[in-house]
Amino acid sequence: MRAVTWHGRRDVRVDTVPDPTIQDPTDIIVRITSTGICGSDLHLYEVMGPFLEEGDVLGHEPMGVVAEVGEQVTEVRPGDRVVIPFTVSCGTCFMCGRGLHSQCETTQVREHGKGAALFGYTKLYGQVPGGQAEYLRVPLGNTLPITVPEGPPDDRFVYLSDVLPTAWQAVEYAAVPPGGSLVVLGLGPIGDMVTRIALHRGVEKVIGLDLVPERLERVRARGVTALDVTGHGRHLGDYVREMTEGRGPDAVVDAVGMEAHGSPVGKLAQQLTGLLPDALAARLMETAGADRLNALHSAIELVRRGGTISISGVYGGTADPMPMQTMFDKQIQMRMGQANVHRWVPEILPLLTDADPLGTEDFATHRLPLDAAPEAYEAFQAKKDGMVKTLLQPGRA
Q: How far is CA 155 from the centre of its chain?
């Protein structure tokens, strides 16, 4: 089969690799019809090389049609249309039973002290082959796949794999009070969807911050107040406070993570890890940190006293400086973590089966054949060609 594979920093290719096979009686094989490129895939493209091996298959936002099932699979059958969550979770363990599917005790990567395994996402998370491919082996076939109806296009459902539950959890964790305000830092795919969900759930004032004109215009078109951060400089905090009764927003969602602009020291650390031998680079990232924390520091500065910061952007280092004095003094609450996909599916799926209030059908800016992945990664990383969300579609001409 054809699959998107990692070969080094800023070097992804579409190679011919062995077809996946049933390895466990509860496995299924899915023929992929649509698969997204995620902002966190850019971390692999740019800086996470120490935790990858050449030829690793990328991607964690797939959906498709069941092609084959193991002998103990009873909940799906060949021909069923399914979405595959990016987290590999069993649905039955202690953590899954408490809605913490991203901490699944069945698939935790204990060797690296991590939570649930992830599709297509480094040794740290199990080195499970990903879904940017023509076929995908999916374990836990009775509990992991999300069965969706025939009829609506893939665009309606594919974001159940990651974007929708990640954004839904971000809004849930933000806990905006009735009549309250929410600032969203970063208007890439997750930040954009956060604004849509927040408006749908009745948040009265939603303010989006970014510096890419196309992203700002996308959210403005749906009724969000969008601010270009480059136009306010050091006065951005004062301007946002003026918009929120002088206090700052009730909550801030950091949808940027370590792709934040600014912080030249953090940028240098990221570049340095790309020059070191893998073992040394991995140690640096895990002990010294390699993140740019500009977005998170902005969230801490912007949120009102007693407010909440919800972090959905991915951070990779473990020893980053945090302004604990300010956080303590402002009595800030923080919630974060990988999305617990199955926890939110019952609330999201009904929004996708009839109407489309979240605008999923026009959410993708680009739909490309699988073989166009290298060019798509390059454009997405450089924020070129108005690219916000790309779906790769195996078989597309």
A: 16
Q: How far apart are CA 127 and CA 265, in angstroms?
A: 30
**Structure tokens given for 369:** 């054949």
pLDDT in tens, 8-55: 999 999 999 999 999 999 999 999 999 999 988 988 888 777 889 999
Tokens read off for 379: 């454009």
Instruction: Give dist(CA 234, CA 327) in Å, integer.
Output: 20
- Beta-bridge partner residues of 330: none
Q: Is the CB of residue 192 less than 8 Å from the CB of residue 215?
A: yes
34: three-class secondary structure by DSSP = strand
Q: pTM score, two decimals? A: 0.91
Q: Report, in angstroms and rounded to the nearest whole number, the Rg of the chain calculated over CA atoms.
A: 20
Cβ proximity of 329 and 92 under 8 Å: no
Give the burial class of 324: count Cβ atoms within 10 A of its Cβ; 0-12 exposed, 13-18 middle, 19 or more buried: exposed
8-state DSSP, 18: P
Length of the chain, in residues: 397
- Sheet of 225-228: strands edge to edge? 225-228, 205-210, 181-185, 251-254, 308-311, 333-336
Express each pLDDT in 95-136 by its tens digit.
999 999 999 999 999 999 999 999 999 899 999 999 999 999
Measured CA angle at 271 (ends 267, 274), to 5 deg: 150
- Of 254, 184, 178, the C-alpha closest to 222 is 184
Nearest-5° Cα angle at 157, 164 to 56: 80
Whole-angstrom distance, CA of residue 197 vs CA of residue 123:
33
